[in-house]
Queue: 2 jobs
Job 1
Amino acid sequence: MEIDKPFTVRAFHDLLNEEKLMGVECRDCGMFYLPPKPVCSSCGSRNLTWRDFAEEGTVEAFTVVHVAPKELMKEAPYVVAIVRLDEGPRISGKLLGVDAPEQVEVGSRVRVEFVKEEDGKYLAFRLQ
Amino acid sequence: MRFAREVAIVGAGTTRFHHKEHREKTSRELFVEASLEAFDSVDKGIERKDIEALFIGNFSSDVFEHQCHMAPLMADWLGLNPIPTTRIENACASGGVALQMGVLAVASGAFDVVMVGGVEKMTNLKTEEVTDTLAMAADNVYEAAVGFTFPGIYAAMATAYFAKYGSEWEDLTAVTIKNHHNGALNPKAHFQSEVYEIASKLGERKGLKFRDEMEFLKSPLNFTVAYPLRLFDCCPISDGASAVILAASEIAEKFTDTPVYFAGLGQASDTMALHDREDLTSIKAAVEAGRKAYDMADLKPKDVDVALVHDCFTIAEIIASEDLGFFKHGEGAKAAVEGRTALDGDKPLNTDGGLKAKGHPVGATGVAMAYELWMQLRGEAGRRQVDDVEVGLLHNVGASGGTVVVQILRR
């Protein structure tokens, strides 16, 4: 996919603001990286291209955070999950609409949701 | 790795690790206290001028004390200027990596005698600020920013481990109880009470009586930090410092007739974020670092008599015991429950109380592990002494496994 942005953290967040979940694919060995990286960790190639990812996946790990850092104390308890997207990469994000361990399990199916905050949109998940 | 010459520990010292005892001290005083004990521990004596270089493990005096450039500060306060001094930061493996660098410095022939210290002063900040600072060891952009805390990351490993192997939170309590038992035998430990003693004391204060440890550990007093990890699954916030003196083995007898030798060294890295790892239930960098250390020492997991592993959280000790080959993957929890890792078990782990009971002043921990192995291998561990210790292993992990150091020491 031709997007005129360097493979940076900033670009990843700019694309999230447009509700696009994008990472990179290595043209030489086929590995995916989400979020994007500038160099393929597998083969060392710099021949990478932007790729968007389907927004569904499975919970592979989760936790319910009770003791939160300063800026998130008001939201506690909240759930953070590690999700394996259907096309392969895993990514971490808050699991919305859930605040107790009985409501989620390893294996739960989730959809990506883009959450609007003051300084932009964030990646989160919601149970399907 | 093959060295031109071997390296040995000829002296070691540590402060107590605690959250209140060092209220009036800063990191510079803590480091000096540990170092002076290390000097005094050298059987045939050592002079300050014998130390040719200093390596300091420290995670974040930058934030905890608003103090960077720790290396010359520690050297200055111990009167070691103008020797070369270096501060190493690899999160919770800062001490272990400082040890690696110290060993390599002596093995290379560049120096004959060096000191390695680790120090952290964590208690100037409130808990939520410490939580925030510790989260800097994780991926700030892709883990901390989405709400993961340190305990949260290990808690995620726990949910994945439970789902894969069928273990439960109750299995983790075996590690808590064992490490508090060992800590009760260690005058340098943060917590020197068995879990049942803590249960009675806290219970008395609240007008509650607990039938046993498990009832206490299941009570609201043992609150959830990040499900499924509760307060007693987590190591405390502690201040402290540890120091060791390393010498080339060919001159070690100048300092002691019973040095402790580095037989194997391993260090490895892995992806920063837990979600990028191959397996959420195993720390690959630990497997890799362990393999390198075992290969270099020409030893196997079964040869290890005592191991100090990185139990920042109870689940971490269980995963470590598998990564280091002491038990098969998926069987670490069962081994802990069966008492195999207790002081009198067939594979004693964390004889000093581990990070859980002994404490975890972040940068000091790796060096404190070397201190305990020095004590065990020389038969000086008092009431927590394991019989017939010939081979010890330390396993020091940075964050969720981005860095791991494994070192094997022998008599």
Note: Chain A has a mean pLDDT of 94.
Job 2
Amino acid sequence: MTSSAFLGQEGDCAYVHQVGARRMTWREFLFGAEHLPFWFFALRAIVLYLALVAATRWMGHRQVGILSGHNYLVAAGIVSVAALRTVHADSSLLSGLTIVLVYAGVNVLLSRLDLRWPRLIDRQPISLVVSGQLQPANLRKARITIEEFLTLLRLGGCLKLSEAWSAVLEPKGKLSIIKKSVASPITRKDFGLGPIPVGGAVEPDGTLTVVHQGDAMGG
Amino acid sequence: MEPVLFALRTLGVGLMIYLMSRYLPRRAGSGLAAYDFVFFWMMGGLAVAPLYFLKIRFIDTITAVTTIYICHYALSGLALVNRRWADWLSGAAFPVIERGTIRKESMERALLPIDMLLSELRIAGAGRVSEVETALMETTGHVSIAKKADHLPVTAGDIQKGGTDQPLPVVVVADGNVLRQNLDKLGVNEDWLKDRLQQARAPEPAAIYAAIWEGSEPIYWAPKTGFAPPTWAPTMH
């Protein structure tokens, strides 16, 4: 690696460039420059990574689970922007941080609107099997072939279409299946087994109340 | 000339992806927390960054990737030793259904509309809210459920029927090759394998695609071509 040294001025910040001893200006750190030392990219990576972690915590657990369409698109977009700005020398770190903040804010806003008006923000589930009957019109609406539907059924543990009582294609693309009772495992209730004690509470008068799974709140 | 340069860069990106995936933290793939999510998606974006513009240097991408690997390792290490840090970093699971009742404040905290909760319950295997005792919004963003006792399947323990817990299966022959290191792990040798294969009416290992030890059951095997006959030979311990 050849050494080079020059003295230059940018705004009111002077800098010297030599091998292994480059001094970076705040302007270059925040707004980028055409030529930057390799360790600068390490610093950028740390800043953008931690910013994204904080933004994802702000967006909530639903962002990590990608529960809806806008969660998925934000995930694909926000980290792509951050990744590119990490390694693109003359792109602005400050702009990247601004994008992360605003993009996360938009996602939080969409999630809050989803809470209030879910039909406005997200897609609705489509029932593909209702009361044991396949719904061909809904398969066409969901743009799914019968072979693809059978694949989803098998992946969901339902090997026969005749075993399915209900199958719903959820907004996030998963197929949830409810089997007919004759094809479902026997439950404790079917077998006449009692409730399961899960704990107890000592009342003010000293008596112990055993809490069973399934007890209504408040007793 | 530019397409050729990008073709060469793509090969370089392919090598980088191989190395990245070879050392990918397992927890990142599970998406256990926000920083896993960020790590996983950011790696995808960084890996292809050199393919956007020729002026993006490989050394800068490798520097960024390495730095984020170190960050992720450090964050997960800190979370193991400091619970308060772990709570801030990952958040915590919290109930959205508690003792059979949907909790409004938890739903708002999770930014979860009611329809989405029903969707998540169906995906988790509960067709009706009334079946659910507890539903937790996990840090992965998914809802896990505990059904009410009445809706739980009957188990062998419920009807006092004993069962035998089987060990995890171990592959002992793969595509005609005897896996000696796996035999060593089981504490057996090739004579044992030959004996078990004979009991299962299997051919020589060279003709076997997969032979899998499954505990007290007869050894499972599949030939390289055709079908295996039913394994009816008695089990010998």
Note: The radius of gyration of chain B is 26 Å.
